[in-house]
Amino acid sequence: MDNVPISGLSELQAHLQQLVNDPSIPFKVKLLDDVELQLTKDNIPPLLPTLLPLSTETLKTTTQDPTPLLSLTTKLLSPLSFTRTLTIADPPSLLAALRSPLPGANLLALAIVGKAADSPSDASILSTLPEVVDGIVRCWLASEDVGVGECAARVLGDLLETDCPTLDNGIDDASSETGSNSNEIVKRRAVGHGRLWQLLLLRRPNLSLIQQHCSFVEPREQAPPRSVRQVTISQGRLLRILPRLCTLNIAALSRPVFPDLFVSPVADASGPGQGLLQWAALGMVDKSDVLMHLSLVDFFETLVSVMRVSKRSSALDTFIGKLVKAALQSDDELETALKTLPDRTVEEEAESLRKYIASLL
């Protein structure tokens, strides 16, 4: 199959060279799509020396919607391991692409670093590049481009899932509240090394970065002040990724690693405690902002939905209950939303969800 000629290949090479010379030339979308459809794991390797430099160079400079060319480039990268891609795009190049104001460059870098989610060992290698990880976090929280922000969130979630040092929140079958059922979230097969978790969520630099982007505080290091819109975008992105991470390792998200960074408004001993999760759920959002309050409600609806189908211990249920009760103390709309959530869920799941929410309340 690798000897079958690729239709349009010469035309594609010429087009990519034109784009390198003049990034303003419109993409020939049909040509890009037609060649991509013909690419296989067998015929890609001989094409890499000619096509990959041209496509990556264009992505780093184009101001057009990069989607068609990014799709082709991602297909070209597919047979390569993360370590192999690092020989093509070294860490300084990745960092420059992540910091670029152009979405195409950001998305190219994210496609490359996302390959580190293929194995725990690759995720560990990425953890040795803290500046690159910092660049991923900044793309996730600060990019004005929706596509870049969403892609960075997916990449971060995939990386942390691969690197997670526990399975099922560290809960074994004997202590599980749910046991095995068809509605459980699909289990991971391997335990990660936890080095990205340490770097991202248990060390001060990246936790400070999250806190600063999601707070209405004076910026440090003479950075320009962030607008309300920029802060709320960051807050929304944090709220959307947390439920997924809670199904992996909720302990890392809820422990008070640096209490001064994430001060919970619920300080009594019977409350849920302090940590990134508690701060985001209880203290981060200005509820007078209607859209952000809706985002917070959506966060809690997603959290209880995914935790119900996760493996849980009684201690974990107790913690989730404390978190939900603390949130309901001054939020009637949230209480109504949670109580009516089963009515907006598929019939097969509704009764189980209703019972779980009742147990939390």
TrEMBL record:
<protein>
    <recommendedName>
        <fullName>DNA mismatch repair protein HSM3 N-terminal domain-containing protein</fullName>
    </recommendedName>
</protein>
